[in-house]
Batch of 2 targets.
Target 1
Amino acid sequence: MNFAFDENQQLLRESTRRFLADRQPLSAVRARLESASTFDRAVWEEGAALGWTAMLVPTEYDGGSVTHQPLVDAVAIAEELGRVLYPGPFLPTNVVADAIAREGTDEQRKRFLAPIARGETVAAWCLTADGTPDLDAVAVTASGAPGGGLTLDGVARFVHDAHVADLLLVAGRTGASVVQVLVPADHAGVETRVLGGIDLTRRLCEVRFAGVTVDPEAVVGDGARTPDAIARSLRVATVLQAAEAVGAADELFARTVEYAKERVQFGRAIGSFQAIKHKLANLLVELEAARAATHDAALALADGADDAEEAVAVAGSYVRDACAHLSGEALQTHGGIGFTWEHDVHLYVRRARSEQLLYGDPAWHRERLCTLVEARVPDGAAGAGAV
Amino acid sequence: MNFAFDENQQLLRESTRRFLADRQPLSAVRARLESASTFDRAVWEEGAALGWTAMLVPTEYDGGSVTHQPLVDAVAIAEELGRVLYPGPFLPTNVVADAIAREGTDEQRKRFLAPIARGETVAAWCLTADGTPDLDAVAVTASGAPGGGLTLDGVARFVHDAHVADLLLVAGRTGASVVQVLVPADHAGVETRVLGGIDLTRRLCEVRFAGVTVDPEAVVGDGARTPDAIARSLRVATVLQAAEAVGAADELFARTVEYAKERVQFGRAIGSFQAIKHKLANLLVELEAARAATHDAALALADGADDAEEAVAVAGSYVRDACAHLSGEALQTHGGIGFTWEHDVHLYVRRARSEQLLYGDPAWHRERLCTLVEARVPDGAAGAGAV
Amino acid sequence: MDVTVPPIPPAYDGYRERVRAFVAEHRPDLGWTPRAGMRVPDDEADVEKLRAWVRALYDAGFAVDPPDGRGDEFESRILREELGRAGVPYVLGNPLVAGALRLFGTDEQRRTYLPPIARGDHIWTQLFSEPDAGSDLASLTTRADRDGDHFAVNGQKVWSTWAQFADFGYLLARTEPVAGPAGITAFILDMRTPGVTTRPLREMTGTSDFNEVFLDDVRIPAGNVIGEPGQGWRVATASLATERGGVGLGGTADAVAALVGMARRYRRGGAPAIEDSAVRQDIARFAARSRIQRALGYRVATKAAAGTVDAWDAPLTKIWYSELNLELCEYAMALQGPVGALVEGEPLAHDSGRWQDAFLYARAYTIAGGSNEIMRNLIAERGLGLPREARGS
Amino acid sequence: MDVTVPPIPPAYDGYRERVRAFVAEHRPDLGWTPRAGMRVPDDEADVEKLRAWVRALYDAGFAVDPPDGRGDEFESRILREELGRAGVPYVLGNPLVAGALRLFGTDEQRRTYLPPIARGDHIWTQLFSEPDAGSDLASLTTRADRDGDHFAVNGQKVWSTWAQFADFGYLLARTEPVAGPAGITAFILDMRTPGVTTRPLREMTGTSDFNEVFLDDVRIPAGNVIGEPGQGWRVATASLATERGGVGLGGTADAVAALVGMARRYRRGGAPAIEDSAVRQDIARFAARSRIQRALGYRVATKAAAGTVDAWDAPLTKIWYSELNLELCEYAMALQGPVGALVEGEPLAHDSGRWQDAFLYARAYTIAGGSNEIMRNLIAERGLGLPREARGS
């Protein structure tokens, strides 16, 4: 048994951490908070050289992971990105890379995967109009176009990082079913608007499609498999998002413990007050539980375990609630200073609250989890009772 | 505004408290814990002389309240009874008295109310087979008997104190509707069994009816009004039960604070540790909130306020959850000594957990509360939003 | 027991009409959007409009809290209702000092300062917290040294509400070189005195509702002491307790109603969220806490009238309100689903992002005016008589 | 990363059959119903049947934890599964001392005491807590005074598991007249030594799973010290940490499955509770916590193997399990509705009242072996390096 990052993953994590401390500390993101974009493309390309977008791409397309569990490798990176509230499109680009690698035609894999792995192509995923994972909320229609292509019309919202994307994976409705197509972000008729969000370090977008006609070759995968492919992408997104959340929570918690040791009130470090000690102890319990849940889900998904969906639903519900709660308690522990714009704690609070609601909110994941647990329990498991 | 017991209610409360300390301390109940009944009829009759069963009975039938708000008077008594985990049939007897006073014929009022008010007649209320307030669960059938009477067959369970009752108010099903009838507890065909319950200081019973035929005069009230009458009885029961719960919680909390001041560990009273201080502060918040909710409900119901049902639903959900939670935390604060049979704290824990589930569990009251709140909110109250 | 609120007699209909007409005519047109909490306009122009509005109300006899203490109960209720509906502040600055002056001020101080507060002529700020004296307010180090008939004040204050637009400050400073509460004195400070420098703070909300205030050899006349020198801790404690009690008076019933509205609009599991049992249970929990908040308010008002207030009442009320308010905001955002991540300025945000702003501001209630951790200490130590926490050395 | 549990090879089917046959033949027929937790039979006759059962298992080669430390991984798993299904204890007494002997005992002590524990020949109890030394175990006052080649022990112990039937006690007593951990020594005590009086305690469960033990001039040979004199605190801390870690190993997946079953049987809002969204959300919360418990177990096992255990690991695991267990019991009772108020012995009780018993017993986990408040101190002080709590004088 080894329920911890192995040596190569630890090296990956440490190199990512050093790189980010050098090239993308939170202070650098802060300087761009009120700009249209917080994204630094140069940093992204250097990150790609460190493997950020290669893990889920097969080696023949310039990809490659450090272990036989690429998703666990990606989690090791995502935790570090979360730690500095990294503003770039790590999550959506990897989700799209995974979708193309698993579902794409050879031609699509050849054309898109290598540029993604090399950091040249940034990808985003346009799923629904209301940001929920419910396929009924897919609001882009994909109607047949002359020559066998498809014409997209409609809108997708709450799309991570679409404003800096080169390539869009777009879910579209054709009659009763759903297809996914690849569309260049600069295609005529595609219009992207950054949404005004509570998260200041990362952007969510609205993407509108007006008469966007694509070739039949733009369709990803077999129509009948698309709902499963989307479900897979949601699982990957949920795990990477959980890993970012755990990384952010870990950093914020460490800073809060340090603050509690330094801040003196009533002639004592506030960390010597038992109410603060027990608050921090409770937060550590939440943090370690969130980390364990995230690694459990990553491992199950990476190994294709039978109960992977269950593990992901645990991460998708527990981790984000715990990290959002932790961020609020960290703020409370900081007191007035934490309430200021200049202090970083609110950036963590904002990130945690924003992410909590995407890729299925916690209630959505819990409903799914209950269904999965139910399926495992045979009738009559309650024990005897007579009333 | 006067959101507190008035002078007469305070006198009533104090006399009740003194009487109980003298005649029915918890130690006296303890001595009977493992007997078939914990009830002391002599104490009950003396309590009746202090007005325990007179408040909801009109003066012409030997009843009478100390203020113009009889239910608030009854709450003042109930808190004191809860404090010593009084094992007698205060709650069901008052509920039945209220039902007869409001719904009974003149003949019924004459025959039953005075003996109830004087403490000679103990009453219990047989509603459903599963202890829920759901009328679908009424499992006594009331079929027409020769001479216009009714014959009762079936079972009611989770009946407070039926084993010591003289008179039963029984809900029975006639076709699609429900009637309530008064049945002497010693009537042939009535069989009462004490249920083995987690609450050691008060008994719940199963009451079986086999061919129990009563006169038409035994029917209480007009058939069409019966569901409303039952709903009223549930509200009265919920408020009295909340008052008992608050009284018990108040006593347990006070004992816990005293223990925290006395118990020394690590060379200090454990109450000097901030974790214990904050735990007790949180419990005080819960206790005061529970008390406020109970008085709010009692007042609204006593005054016949438009929103009385809402106030009762608040009490029925918040108060019992809070008091059950408080009992567990009080136990935790006591540590090992609280885990022993000899210490009283488990008797409070047991009472709180048992009562939590009767007369509609907290989830039932919350569902009702949501429905009532919804009815008050006009469409469009959410504010503007565009997605 | 009685908490009956008597219905307003029909004879007052004319009064209500007059208030409505007045509001319609004088309601200021601000560049700034009023938000939840004690919030401050962005610029002087809006402040001047608000001053004119409060002055006009006062001069027309529409003072919510008349300085002579008289006033008709029904008129006062109508006025609060109608001004609440107007959605524009009608109290400017931090009125904390009014309680201090009523309890400890000289007759002259009361005459001089109370009417201009009511008329909007004077805006006040409080100068209490310091960078190293937050929860531990009694450790404040701003000095006020006696110099003839004046005091010379030096130090730095923070978390001063409205200070950027304030005419006067309610200042706590140390007049005796001893540690703790004993050497503290309360002052009235004219904010235009040389040596006073105000710097707006920007908070996590993105707005500037608080300030840092630097005091550099600021001279205050000895007559501006509130109460006696050395009595400042008592003065401040009494007025803060009033503020904490006040925190609980903001109703939350409207917020609960808004949750119902949101639950009707947003969906869960393919149907309106209001049909989801889990959402219904949650809404009921909030409805219960909201109604209990009102009942706790009745209780405290009853005890206040009877002079039987317990030491725990004000902190308990503050904890109850501030945690309920925070969780209401969090839940509202969760009910909105992904829309919950959108803020003011974004057209798709729910109700102009008011819940998101209220969420970010909510920590002002759980931290400021004594954090909830300090409130729990007060309940345990002063309310329950448990041993005091030891000071460090 | 890897937590794969390899499937048991078909070649082991024969072993499983042999175990099953053995259990069918030797499973004792007890007068007493085994319950959740470390519970003790009501009378000596059942204890003797259990001793015979454990001995028979051992002699047949079916020892779960063979004293030689060898054993086949798959056989061990099969054995635990089948013995778990048998529903009868196969570990008697409190095995805490085994860890202490392995870490600190002499070779002779290990040879003398470990095999009889495994064979059920020796039942052990722990003699740690005292009436005035609960959370503050290091303040224990039971004295062990050196007298030649013996120690004379005087004092009172409490919360001693299985002591009424124990052959040996794992005793902590003070050999030096200093306060705190320094003067404490760990001993092996033969419970049949004159001066040892055991009195079963009755707990809130109504059962007697713990005891008071009175020690009156009890003579213990000096050779029965575990480790060195004065080293007892280290010995005890090491073995308690093992126990705390162990608390987390009780799985809760079966309990979550039982909740699903109850939600199918009991009704809410006129339909099976499993169709109620609020119940589904609650069940999912428990399922998540249960699965996380397992993952935390993997983590701790990984760290233990790598020698990188943190000071917070054992207390964190104990908090997680004990609170989850308590809340599971509370929720199970709530799901049952009014039936939740019925207990063992009542025919209408759900599943013979096991949830009600488990609820009442659940505080043994949140209080005993170091209360959860003490666990939070350990996390904060030893895990996070926050300042230690001051002792009183």
Target 2
Amino acid sequence: MADTAVHADDHVDHGAHHTSTGLSNNKLAMWMFLGSECLLFGGLISTYMLYRGRHSANLGPDQVWDIPFTSASSFVLLMSSLTMVLAVSSANRDDDRNTKLWLSVTALLGALFVAGQVYEFTTFYREGLGFTTSLFSSSFFTLTGFHGVHVSVGIIMLMSLVGMISKNKVVGDKKEVVELFGLYWHFVDVVWILIFTLVYLIPA
Amino acid sequence: MAIIERPSDEVEVVDQSTPSEATPESSYGVFRRPVETTGWKSWLFTIDHKKLGIMYGVVAMFFFVVGGIEAMLIRLQLAGPNGTVLSADKYNQMFTMHATTMVFLFVMPMAAAFANYFVPLQIGARDVAFPRINAFGFWAFLFGGLFLNTSWFLGGGADGGWFMYAPNSSVAFSPSNGVDFWGLGLQITGIASLTGAINLIVTVINMRAPGMSLMKLPIFTWMVMVVQFLLLFAMPVITVALFMLMFQRSFDATFFTVEAGADPLLWQHLFWIFGHPEVYILVLPSFGIVSEILPVFSKKPLFGYPLIVFSGAAIGFVGWGVWAHHMFASGLGPISVAAFSVATMAIAIPTGVKIVNWTLTMWGGKIKFTVPMLYAVGVIIQFTIGGLSGVTHSVAPSDTQQTDTYYIVAHFHYVIFGGAVLGLFAGMYYWWPKMFGKMLNERLGRVNFWLTIIGMNLTFGPMHIIGLQGQPRRMYQWTENRAGEGFFNIGFWNLVASIGTFVLALGVLLFFVNIYVSHRKGTEKAPLDPWDARSLEWITTNPPKEHNFDRVPQVGHLDEFFHRKYEDRGADGHHEFHQVATAEEVLAEEEKNADGHIHLPSPSYWPILLAFSLPIMAYGVIYNLFLLLGGAVLALVSFYGWGLEPHTAPEEDYDPPTGTSMEVASHG
Amino acid sequence: MFTTGSKLLFGASGASLIGTLLYGVLIGGIMGTVGLVSLTTGLIFLAGINAFIRDANVAADDVTRFSGSAAATPRPASSVWPIGVAVGGVLIALGVVIHAALTMIGLVVVLAASAEWLLQGWAEGASSDAAHNREVRGRLAYTAEMPVAAAIGLGLIVFMFSRVMLGAPTKSSTIVAFSIVATIVLFGGAVISRARSLSASKMFGLFSIVSVVLLAGGAVAGLNGEREIKEHHTTAYYAELDKCGEEEISADEHASQTVAGKANSSAEVTLSENGLSYIRPGLKTPKSGMIQLPRSNPNNILFRNETAEPRRFIAELADVEGSPARLCTALIEEGGVQLLTINYTAPSFDPAVEESGGYAFVVAGLDERIEVVVP
Amino acid sequence: MSHLKVHDRTMSTSNDSTPILENMSSRGRKLATAGAGLSAAALLAGCATDAPQDTWKPAGANAQKIQDLQWPVFLTAGVVGVIVMAFIAVTVVKYRDKGQPIPEQAHGKAWLEYLFIAIPAVILAAIAIPTVGVVMALNATDDTECVINVTGQQWWWEYDYEVGADGTICGYAPSAVEASPIITSGQLVIPANTKVLLRGTSRDVIHSYWIPRLNGKRDMVPGRVHFLRLESDTPGIYAGQCTEFCGLSHANMRMETVVLESADFQKWLDNELEPYQAPQEGSLAAEGETTFIAQCSRCHQVNGLLDPNNGNIVVSYPDQFVYSGAAPNLTNLMVRNTFAGATWDLLTPECRADVWESSPEEFGDKYLAGVSQDCLNEIDLREWLRNAPAKKPMYADPATLEQTDGKVRGMPYLGLSEDQIDQLIAYLLERK
């Protein structure tokens, strides 16, 4: 998304074109995108809320949850938000080394979270909760799966952002690019907090 | 092209596009970027909002013809009792694809065409905020549309109606792949709309010409922005629904499996939460166009501009609170039915405001009846009819008698054809000289207009009667013993409607004839300001230069261009306007003080590549998951190629190279 | 003249075109055809772009090079790709003997390596300036390398670590392992960010050690296999075993006591102090004794327990083919609700049904009974 | 409009709705003068002779409620429409360019704008209030007098009459036998002047139950239970059509509601519950019975039918052959006068007309007479038995059913010989 048309030619330094609002195009666009993402997860969450009790004589939520584990992995994801903040701040200090470092750490923690999700899904499956078992399972795996995909995409972007920084290939304003990735990452985090509360903590 | 060193004339621009042999400075490898500004390559890889706008228009018109043919087949089938033109199966596919094509592949992209072409011009910008995303959007739409229609050759189109209610959409009830194609095709076009929405919103919010406050925004741009916000929030909802449909059909999920306790109404809610805003997505752009045209030909500013803006926004908001009026018969509780019924009536108020203000805009004006004006007035009248019949079924109980009958078909065709499509035609006649530098023939235009109006009223008018006589929609046959006799017998009016379709088709045909006639050799170039227009897009050449404006105009008034041409010489409360400058003079003034150094982002082929990966993945979902993987890799690669590509091609990419630019510094 | 890049693509598209035709003619089958067709179109598309972006001619980058003496032309830089190709080849060979998966991996390795090789060779032809040539290579390579490398990296970590966790002996130990690794990552990061002195090479070493550990752990755990995770039996399972009694069964642990979407129930059965009664939508007055339900239609039956002690609701289904003998809910505590979706396939006047005592709703341990009539 | 009273047989006999008609038609006259426009067309549409699904000819309390609510709305809409059109017409004529000077560039008048917000707001409020009232009234179910279960499936309707706790069906106790559930299809029979509550669901996809002259439509959704109130004081047949798109033969999914005076309903009830009478030994019908058991009874239930060979009762298991899991119960086929989802008539056109157009007084007897030998519409019935899927599009080709694990949706081609068809028709003719 890091391309902008030059609006008026008086500024040519990139990422910081003159705009009517003073807000950079990229940042505005990212906010718009996240706004639309909210409704995506809104739809998925409400579907799950509607179907969480629909499992007839099959496994119900409270029979498979492993709250301690999920809390641990949620905490890890939260921490990754912290490291993301550190990455952004190092980027603002033009400290490439630590930017790369914190980006990688963020990516690692994210990967741990995803690994945790894989582990969790596997155990659920072993316990007899397949994707097609019941409405509850279908909507649960879809909701959490969508979130997992969002995290994974984020990780891939983070990792290759590290690559781009070290190869000096970042297009446009490096600070801003890192910040945009940060926005996305935090959003994915917040969504998980919501999912964790609604799906796991509130008893069905 | 990247740099125009002033003074610049077209010749130089053309020069740069004719590639010569590679030179020592020349760039290397397949990653040399396309830089042509003429020839088919310049269209394939362009990121110029004007070229993209035109391509949107052309493709949309193509799908308009496709959808029209489907409509004519439907009407042929229903012309008489027990029609045999189509089998039940084909008929079901026909009306499903007719609706899908018209909504997603004609009206929406046609509006996108105008939005793409004119929003930057109307706000005095040199391009949209994200030109490459803009290009991606177009190609995604095109590939999505083609993908959707390949279903005809791969086992038949979708046959569940454009609303695709579950569980009728599940594999057991719709065994062909049609529904899969439908769902995935809409996903792809949905991505296009979403990116387009983000792009245009940012453009309008961030790239307005100096002095253009939001309340000086041309009304068309305003309506477009409202529409983009609707898209931004409506698309993800249908995306969720379509994903569930895909999981249900391709991966045996249980979302709509009643045996597992599923609630089929879930789909209806998700669909209509998207589907109702969709109605405004279809109709608001053409409201914008009408609101542009009426003032021009009445020589009067839009009456109550702020009110029209706010009513547009209001429609946008309230539009989210009325979705369930599509479900009055589907067994919601009385409480919610009553609530949604009232909400639906409420939305009639801002809509009424528009009609009234349009009329008051003409009132006391100096009305010239050119073809665009004819169409604009046509919209007011036809849409009023549609709006009023809408009021009759905002009344929930009477809706339970009318919904899913032809009365509804009549209603929304008056709204969507009378409201949206006529408006788009108005736009084409109005902006044609701006886009192509030629006027469309006025006399042919009038015939075209009257045939269209007569045709649509012949086609859709009788459907009010047919519906109130109790003929449901989506029946591949109707029979004598339910037709009744006398003046209102269903048989007669069905025949009339079918005849009307062909009159309508003739009208549309004339439009194409008109294009041909107007572009024959020897037809003279359009004047610079044929309509004595009022808004910014006319302060430049016809068609506009690639960089739109030599100087980014300074805006002082709502109708900037008008106020540059006319001046109020009246004294003490008494007004008289005199022309102080011709369009040519205004333009000359602009060109004299042209900006010294304009640069635009260069073409790129990543957008088309990325878009191309989407249908591949979609085929993968239907036929073979390895194909899906392949598509995904292509997508990933093009995504990163895109991400690693500088906004502007390095100077070496231009032969002969065009001097130096600060752009080069930004390669990083 | 065409460059290696274009030639490569031309070759590929030509090959896949032929492949498509052959497949279409000889084998047919919509899947493959569509697959190959789109592959071919994709390649032709790329080749077309490549060719039409006229100057795919890298050699033209640096004319001096051709005029210059042989000495001017740089030595080809050292390259790992030949090794890669070799390894791949070996893997393919091994795969043929050991396991098909190896062959696939080998194939991928060979393809990747030779592509890189090709690319490098091609790039080195660009000019006499090695740095410039790397730049040339990068332009083409990074677009693919970066995302793919990232994806593979992610895949490895996720796979390996999830193996480790699945291998861990108990749930709690999994949580511990998980938390420990997370903490290490976090603090490792903190330490490194402080230790400015740490040289790039040291950091590289560190990371490689970590990844080796992870890989090793994953491999070990993977070979070790997962810990035994018991299937959690459902009331449906116990119903099959005819275990719908009063006593608590494992399926009753954390059994849900609430139900969403009561709107679409076809009957709401309530157990209160004064017996078993039901309400059908539309009529408010509770009934008992007999209920009539439609045949071969999923009926959502809600059971609500308003008595003090937990109760199990049982739907007695006659022993006719295609349906279990009975369905039962979990033990429902006071005020709890659970839903059963029942589909009666045979009418109650079917002799088979009558013999096996007919359809009924009962509660384990009580002689309350509602006859179910299926017309 | 005045001719409405003359032509409209059913309405003029219903005394309580007559006054409504009078003020309607008088208002209608005003309207007619009010000129063209949507609502005129709409109101006039109300007067077409005998369009069986005319939404503007209520024949029962519920439909009447809707009618009384909707015609003033149409009227208002029409009047508003006419005014707006007139206004526009005046504007474009009055202010077309006659060389007048460029008008003042006024951006609007606040008071005018607010006025034009206020007017529609008031009108709509006036419409909204009664609307809410009627919505609530139509959804009230407390005073229900009779509950009938309606189940839709591709592409026909099944009705089953519940036996109440008091052992009656809709308050009617069978005179001969003890009450037991009744299952019919296609034609719903209800007693006149009774508040009937349809409790509807579906076996496969969403269908919609709609008898325009008795009430608005209501979707019948699988897995959900929805209600629809029907009530009529005028004996007769009221036509309807499935209005939620339900797949291939959506157009061929019809229903009719038959309203009978209470005495006639009692007769109908007794007839429905009559024990099964085996056809006479050696008659064509007797052969038909055997053919029926061999060919049809896998899916079609005939209550009380005994297998002459072993004396067992014959039970059908449609769920093993039909995807939706049901097929019409044929116990008293010839009492109802339609078949195949009420799409074709069992009566010849003349006989049909005789029944449909008979006066309410004699309607009951004519309907209960059922289908006689010489009134039987053999053409359609034979075509149907010969090759059902050819007559009504259905998914019944065994070759293309892997998605539904071999189960058909609709009646398959049975390859019956002409003799077998004769026998079956003879047998079915006795099912009344």
